[in-house]
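User: Can you model how zinc ion sits in this protein?
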Amino acid sequence: MQNLNTYILAIESSCDDTSCAVLSNEYVLSNVTANQKIHEQYGGVVPELASRDHQKNIVPVVDAALKKANISLKDLNAVAITRGPGLMGSLLVGLSFAKSLSLALNIPLIEVNHMQGHILAHFIKEVNEQKTHNEPEQPSFPFLCLTVSGGHTQLVKVCDYLSFKVLGETIDDAVGEAFDKAAKILGLPYPGGPLIDKLAKEGDKTKFSFAQTKVPGYDYSFSGIKTSFLYFIQNNTQKNPNFVTENLADICASYQHHLIQVLLKNVKVVLKETGIKQLAIAGGVSANSSLRVQVKELEGELNIKTFIPKFEYCTDNAAMIGITAYYKFLKKDFSDLSITPMARMHL
Ligand code: KG4
Ligand code: ZN
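Assistant: Here's the modeled complex, given as structure tokens:
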């Protein structure tokens, strides 16, 4: 492995996962995440409970990441932190902790935009893959990235590691919310996306259909689809109180199929109109098994290359914050200790 000398400790705490990673250049040495189970019963993330859990988790998670990487604090060259977008209280816990580390160790603080992190997760390298000469191909610039998470849905032209152009995005809810809200209506716990994915595997995706939305340009809208799903369940349950239990897998398969068709429609148009030949997906919803298969199938259909992230780097993780910070470190793009978290933050 070349030049193993930049060690970055990265922290991600923008929503309900407390995560810490240690990277050596682009190579991830550890990536430890504490998930918060407390939100399951509420059908969504409760911000105040999330920040309290981050406070409990942050020291043990950082400690575990350092131990796993076999790196001590004095070896670190920089500390990286998600500045936004995300929940204010959650971001504040991570940022305060990262500032203290930067000050105590006298090393630079590097702020990272969470959405850039999701995209750059495609550039995380693994030590074992390097040793076995088994490193997967990475996208080259420019490529198109469909970033799909619980808070965002964006179509981004990625021009360089730190240069992005948003071509389209949701004008209301994110696709992850459309998964999670539907799951809540079906009586499934939060986060519902993975459960809908699992149930959909046994169902008939052509059985039910849902509202089509018309949005100008390359933008998306999911709020009408969510509402149409609610009315669909209410109407059918009035006719048959057992409608959901009798049709659960078919409902999940049909709804998931609909969301994926909506996502991919704009992707295909953008690829054709811009001539971009590489497509990546990123964010929590890119863990969806059907989306992953359908994106791969576009390779033959559109004569393009596609890039699907490893499962562990789809949902929130600190390794993606570390890799983004590494490219900022190379440019000496450091942050001042006076920075504050940003609940909203543009790419
Ligand atoms: O990126 P992420 O971990 O957090 C945000 O930045 O929001 O994304 C979380 C979202 C949730 O809405 C969750 O339901 C969804 O990703 N998700 C999935 C799957 N795994 C996670 N959605 C559909 N299918 C999945 N397998
Ligand atoms: Zn995320």
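A couple of observations from the model: Residues 243-274 form the longest helix (32 residues). The longest strand covers residues 27-35.
User: Helpful, thanks.
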